[in-house]
Amino acid sequence: MPANESGRTAGPSVLISADMEGVTGVTWTDDVVPGTEQWQRFRTMLTGDVNATVAGACAGGAGGVLVNEAHLSQRNLLLEDLDTRARLLTGRHKPLSMMEGIDSGVDGAVLLGYHAGSGCEGVLSHTYLPAHITGVWLDEAPASEGRLNTALAAEYGVPILVVTGDDRACADAAEYAREAEHVVVKECVSRYAAVCDPPSVTAARIAEAAERSMRRAGRAEPVVSRHRIEIEFDASHLAQAAAAVPTVAETGLRRIAFEAETMTEAMKAFKVVTSIADGAVQGKYG
Ligand SMILES: [Zn+2]
Q1: Dist CA 243 CA 77 (whole Å)
Q2: Mean pLDDT over all residues of the chain?
Q3: Distance (Å, whole) CA 239 – CA 251
């Protein structure tokens, strides 16, 4: 397909939200903590999983791919090794955070390197805060980052095309994004152990799924509705700190909840609440 002036071809455009815990081979905290030797090593695995997705999506007809960094500092991918058909949104402090770019007119989204939610079994399972959130519920349903971000994508009419991660992340995705391709790159043994396939094996699996998924690319009618998010922390003072945010109410000793008119507003409030709670954590006592 001929490229237009912006370097894009005429096919549908895809957003890849690239997290890291669910990437090929990742099982340990150091693997995903910026600055460590293992993180440096796993940046290559993350870039490999992303490149496999780009290759598959383009083989399936994608005309443009935007990769949005979604893990911690949001500066993990190796731009110098990125497939030249993709562009990279790197760095943090973005209004829609893990899903920045979902409002830019894309025709499908990929949740790459995702993981099970807090309190659930799965490699490096958590929802936003790794240690101090013990549960999140979206409209009463237990909510991983994948479920929250899928609801956000729906508000812009964007279908989730592919979810990659361990077997637990994929079982979760089967609940919130049933029609997406679910690509298992490792099988969970414990929160810090997994049986892993080598990157060349997972790359082929990811690329095939991404290519197949492009049949579903194309925006649907946006689903805009009121949402309620409830969060349980591991200590009472974190709930008290979060309840200082307007519209947030304590619903139990360690629980808070809030409602918002749209998922975009709910996720902005979620970001504020988790930031305030994170700031209230006190050393080893949490
Ligand atoms: Zn992450």
Answers
A1: 35
A2: 96
A3: 9
Paired with 194 in beta bridges are 188
155 and 241 in a single domain? The answer is no
User: What is the per-residue DSSP string for 162-214?
Assistant: EEEEEHHHHHHHHHHSTTSEEEEEEEEEETTEEEE--HHHHHHHHHHHHHHHG
Domain that holds residue 248: 227-281
Distance 2 CA to ligand 1 centre (A): 36
| Domain shared by 97 and 29, yes or no | yes
Q: Do 190 and 267 sit in the same domain of this protein?
A: no
* Phi-psi domain of 81 (left: phi exceeds 0; alpha: psi -120 through 50; beta: other): alpha
Ligand 1 centroid to residue 163 C-alpha, Å: 14
Ligand 1 is a single-atom ion; what residues have CB below 5 A from it? 19-21, 71
What pTM, to 2 d.p., does this model score?
0.96
Residue 122 CA to ligand 1 center (angstroms) comes to: 13
Amino acid at 101: G
pLDDT tens-digit series, residues 24-43: 999 999 999 999 999 999 99
